[in-house]
């Protein structure tokens, strides 16, 4: 069993990637893996995991009217602000691990690289709402956009966008992984769920070992 030092705060692990890469599946498996080690874990999704955050999620994924890219950005940032204040900061001392199903990098990839919103501005907004909560580890699950969309099978506002949009988002994520290579680890999800989980556990164990030094 890994013993976390109680004077330290929870490790934050985020999952990122385009639609259907297996983020939610792998969040669940990682949570189980860490709980089996005796660690206290909470899984949060973004946008969501707070009352207002879930309301914002409904607008973002299923809202009827046309949202401008900038309004969309601000809604994601507002949901993030609620999540940080209501859930992340509160659980920082209560839990050992906070797992996030998407977080700061998603806005850079989708609204920045994908929709052309100024990256510098997104970085500033991210810093304002989540500056103290940069993940210790980010697992970027990667797949060809057409394969991810088939897997996802959903039909929300993002899934309906053209393949070229999803390719820009994917390339944006990969560019972020290059810039922040110590934090963001890219994992291909062409392999089956179990094999992907094994790779994720390798990076997570490495991060836990560093944190316990
Ligand atoms: N490595 C994999 N190989 C094959 N199928 C997979 C793999 N990972 C996940 N799946 C399947 O793909 C589907 C989508 O997975 P999941 O919901 O975890 O993806 P997601 O990244 O959370 O999607 P979204 O971006 O839409 O939230 C599920 O049916 C899941 O069982
Ligand atoms: Mg999901």
Polypeptide structure, described:
It is a single chain. The protein has 213 residues and is α/β, with parallel strands linked by helices. It has a single domain, classed as Rossmann fold (3-Layer(aba) Sandwich). The protein is built from eight helices and five strands. The protein has helices spanning 23-36, 51-62, 69-91, 104-114, 119-130, 145-152, 163-179, 193-211, and strands at 11-16, 41-45, 97-101, 137-142, 184-188. A five-stranded parallel beta sheet has the order 2-3-1-4-5, with helices on both faces. Helix 2 (51-62) runs antiparallel to helix 3 and helix 3 (69-91) runs parallel beside helix 5 (119-130). It starts with 10 loop residues before the first strand and ends with a helix. Magnesium ion binds next to helix 1.
Tell me, briefly, the overall form. globular
Bound molecule types? adenosine-5'-triphosphate, magnesium ion
Strand content: 5-15%
| Mean pLDDT over all positions | 94
The major β-sheet equals: 5 strands, parallel
Q: Please state the structural category.
A: alpha/beta
- Count every helix, treating DSSP H or I runs of 4 or more residues as helices: 8
Rounded to the nearest angstrom, the distance between the terminal CA atoms is 15 Å
Count of DSSP strands: 5
By CATH, the topology is Rossmann fold
Q: Helix and strand string, N-terminal first?
A: EHEHHEHHEHHEH
